[in-house]
Design goal:
Blueprint lengths: L1 H21 L9 E2 L5 E8 L4 E7 L3 E2 L8 H5 L3 E5 L3 E2 L3 H11 L8 E8 L4 E8 L2 E12 L2 E9 L6 H10 L16 E11 L1
Antiparallel strand pairs: 1-11, 2-3, 2-11, 3-6, 4-5, 5-7, 7-8, 8-9, 9-10, 10-11
Length: about 200
């Protein structure tokens, strides 16, 4: 009887060990930015009453692609570049003016480039390079599933773009006149980015 119990215990032990060995390892999910789905929208403003002018950039390159176990870490420290040639506002004449008379007279600005830095669960900043100048652009963000929504207001004066703005306003003088007869092109631009991730 004792021998039978001993054999049973040994069998149970061996079965348990084999079962542990066969247990499949859980696959860890990793996230990375999907540059093809990510959208970069901007809203500029004209006239004294601040009439919005909307557009977007249609191309994005992730210069430092990497994967992480969560979306926040996958976004953090990501470097990117955006070709100015991909600017699109559904108005060819406006697009040409923005490319040549605004970005075109800046220093080394065929690309907008930067690095995203996450500071907490709701905010971060971009080390953004434009007009040969790198400055911090703070932003707020939210995460919904596998999409990060980034919103910020960029003041182009921070990147010493006054000459570029004056050039654009001169070319669009009549178009940027409001009911008060004043022509104005605002230096602040609203940015709304939807960053899509893949796992």
């Amino acid at each position: 009887m004792k021998k039978s119990i001993a054999i049973l215990l040994v069998f149970t032990f061996v079965y348990s060990v084999q079962s542990c060995k066969k247990k499949p390892k859980e696959k860890q999910i990793e996230f990375s930015i999907d540059a093809n789905k990510t959208t970069i929208n901007w809203t500029a403003f004209k006239t004294s009453s601040k009439v919005p002018v909307k557009g977007k950039f249609t191309q994005l390159t992730i210069e430092t692609p990497h994967k992480a176990s969560n979306i926040k870490e996958a976004l953090n420290s990501t470097s990117f570049s955006i070709p100015v040639s991909s600017l699109f506002s559904n108005n060819p004449d406006r697009d040409n003016k923005l490319k040549t008379l605004f970005f075109g007279i800046m220093k080394n600005t065929s690309l907008l480039s930067g690095t995203l830095m996450i500071t907490n669960d709701t905010s971060g900043y971009v080390d953004l390079t434009m007009n040969g100048i790198t400055e911090k652009l703070p932003f707020a963000y939210t995460i919904d599933g596998e999409v990060v929504s980034i919103k910020t207001i960029m003041n182009t004066d921070t990147w010493q773009a006054q000459a570029a703005l004056n050039s654009l306003n001169e070319a669009c003088f009549e178009l940027h006149k409001g009911a008060d007869g004043v022509s104005k092109t605002w230096s602040d631009v609203a940015i709304d980015i939807q960053v899509y991730f893949k796992s």
